[in-house]
Automatic annotation (TrEMBL):
TM ranges: 51-69, 153-171, 207-230
Organism field: Litoreibacter janthinus
Nucleotidyltransferase listed as a keyword: no
GO molecular function: oxidoreductase activity, acting on paired donors, with oxidation of a pair of donors resulting in the reduction of molecular oxygen to two molecules of water
Keywords assigned by UniProt, alphabetized: Membrane, Transmembrane, Transmembrane helix
Single GO cellular component term: membrane
Protein name: Fatty acid desaturase
PANTHER family membership: DELTA(5) FATTY ACID DESATURASE C-RELATED, FATTY ACID DESATURASE 2
Stretches assigned to the Fatty acid desaturase domain: 70-314
GO biological process terms, semicolon-separated: lipid biosynthetic process
InterPro entries listed in its UniProt record: FA_desaturase_dom, Fatty_acid_desaturase, Rhizopine-oxygenase-like
Length: 358
């Protein structure tokens, strides 16, 4: 494929439509309808429990950090608060955007709105952006959420461990929207009827940030922005650490999530922060299955999936060499090996997408 154009307005976007990669019919592992219905059943209990634990922990960590400020003893509490604000909110934004964690729709929306604010992602814009990501996952020119492009911008990814580019892009987009405008790429996937909502929310957020900054200036203290805004920077590292592994180094322009997504076994704390999104092949195949049932789904379909990575460290030891090689050879990628019990790839479509490679 050579040099790629990831713009939603570029030639690769047009090529994806012409070749049938856009809005394609994706591969799914067969699951009996009865079992699928049980997996998709929503329940307020697990999400309510986890949400109470999350916000209670955020309150306690923030209170301890403020109480100990400006002593260095406050640093561990700021770091813990930051990870919950700048990383756990990423997974809450993601899952509640799908509307699956809670059975009660308004609970999903409440958490989605809060998490969107923390992550500086307009809840209207990103609902449509993420819908496109699921429709055209890692399809060049169609997916607006590709992180590890080819050649990979490794410096950009490294900077985003501190939210430096991602968060500032969010604030820049917020100001643009608050001025009454949307950029050209947003207009390709957000219906015109939704534009006023994008603008209204951006203006509310801009007002909130203005109050926080004004309070910080009036009190001559950094504490207000340490609580609202800056955690998006100093707490971003965990969501980037885990999020990069979702698709990095894997195949582009295929319509089988077993090729372009990665499942990684993680420790319980990371799974709580990440809300089980480490089961990422499973999530992409069946996005309407709630996060707390993804381990069960994994056990049901693992016979049809590549072997999961055993840990975050082992996943990076696999992905990083590929990303480094892609700096020189853009078409390099990790080809996933399926177990003998798996159904085969749809070779006819993959040969076209991969330029003749089986």
């Amino acid at each position: 494929m050579g040099v790629r154009n990831y713009s939603l307005l570029g030639p690769d976007a047009q090529r994806a439509v012409k070749t049938g990669l856009a809005a394609a019919d994706w591969y799914h592992t067969d699951i009996p309808r009865k079992d699928m219905k049980a997996l998709m059943k929503r329940d307020d209990g697990p999400a309510m429990r986890d949400t109470i634990v999350l916000f209670a922990a955020m309150f306690l960590f923030a209170s301890a950090a403020v109480w100990l400020w400006p002593s260095w003893w406050s640093a561990p509490f700021w770091l813990a608060y930051g990870v919950l604000y700048g990383s756990a909110m990423d997974s809450r934004w993601h899952e509640c955007g799908h509307g699956t964690p809670f059975r009660t729709a308004k609970y999903n929306d409440w958490v989605y709105q809060i998490a969107s604010f923390c992550m500086v992602r307009n809840p209207v814009t990103w609902r449509w952006s993420h819908a496109r990501h699921h429709t055209d996952t890692i399809i060049v020119g169609r997916d607006p959420e590709i992180v590890a492009m080819r050649p990979p911008a490794l410096l950009r990814i490294a900077l985003n461990f501190f939210g430096i580019l991602d968060a500032f892009a969010g604030w820049k987009r917020m100001i643009l929207n608050a001025s009454g405008r949307l950029d050209a790429e947003e207009r390709t996937y957000i219906p015109e009827s939704e534009h006023p909502k994008v603008i209204r929310i951006a203006r509310i957020w801009t007002a909130i940030y203005a109050v926080v900054i004004a309070t910080s200036l009036a009190t001559q203290s950094i504490l207000p922005v340490m609580l609202i805004g800056l955690p998006r920077l100093y707490g971003a590292w965990h969501h980037v650490l885990t999020g990069v592994l979702q698709h990095a180094g894997l195949a582009e322009n295929v319509i089988d999530h077993r090729l372009n997504s990665r499942t990684v076994y993680m420790n319980p704390l990371s799974r709580f922060i990440y809300w089980n999104m480490n089961y990422h092949i499973e999530h992409h195949m069946f996005p309407m299955v709630p996060y707390h049932r993804l381990p069960q789904l994994h056990e049901m379909i693992r016979h049809d999936l590549p072997a999961p990575n055993r840990s975050i460290w082992q996943a990076y030891s696999e992905a990083l060499p590929i990303l480094i090689r892609q700096l020189r050879y853009h078409d390099d990628f990790l080809s996933r090996e399926l177990p003998k019990t798996a159904r085969p790839y749809r070779i006819d479509l993959h040969e076209t997408a991969l330029g003749g490679r089986p």
